[in-house]
Amino acid sequence: MAAASASASLLLPSSFALRSHKLPTPKSITLRSHRRYNSLGISASASVSVSNPNLRTGPDGLVASILSKVVQTDGGVLLKKEQHKEVAEVAQELQKYCVSEPVKCPLIFGEWDVVYCSQPTSPGGGYRSAFGRLFFTTKQMIQVVEAPDIVRNKVSFSLLGFLDGEVSLKGKLKVLDSEWIQVIFEAPELKLGSWQVQYGGQSEVKLKITYIDEKIRLGLGSRGSLFVFKRI
Asked: What angle do CA 9, 169, 202 make, to 5 degrees?
């Protein structure tokens, strides 16, 4: 993944469109082992009752299933309506395994690849629109969450296939409640070859964390967009 507030995952707000809520700002939390993390409420051996019998059950199977549906889809651009529906069904089942207060989970920190958005043009704004994609080919959409309260979003692209560029944002996290976070971003910065400029103004995004583990994080934007983040 003009500044615009994004709807759900925290990539490029406003003109870039990833909205999210603020992540927690735990200062003394350390990363826990997988066994300890399970004590937070995730049971790898548990299973769920799903409406679609084709869905794999259990968190590990559901994580594998959702990743298989969204990777290499250009953030969801290549998926059809029915395929987006399948992703939403898996996400709905997977959120049943979410820890009780995900904003306090230390696993939120790290580097994430924004592999999917139910509104595929949301992360990246105009650069990802149907018109923008005629000129800009997205190479990567990354979000880095640093303790205690920093978020860095970057969309890397190629202009007309030969000139590399990127748009980046830096923001401050704020916890709204046990699930929702808010990020206030500074004005975006555009780099195109050796040229660099900062433009626009501040923007705000909100995101609800609906699931998180060592591999992925799911987010639901304030406007209903579903995001899938894959840990790098």
From this structure: 90
The domain that contains 177 carries what CATH number? 2.40.128.280
Determine the structural domain holding residue 158 and report its residue range.
Answer: 34-231
For the record, the structure tokens of 146 come out as: 């640093």
pLDDT, tens digit (0-9, with 9 covering 90-100), for 5-61: 333 334 554 333 333 333 333 333 333 333 333 333 433 333 333 445 445 568 999
Q: Are 24 and 13 in contact (CB under 8 A)?
A: no
Looking only at the bridges linking them, the beta strands covering 110-117 and 136-146 are antiparallel
Q: Is residue 67 a part of any domain in this protein?
A: yes
Would residue 54 count as lying in a domain?
A: yes
Q: How many residues appear in the chain?
A: 232
Burial class, 39, CB count within 10 angstroms (exposed 0-12 / middle 13-18 / buried 19+): exposed
| pTM, entire model | 0.75
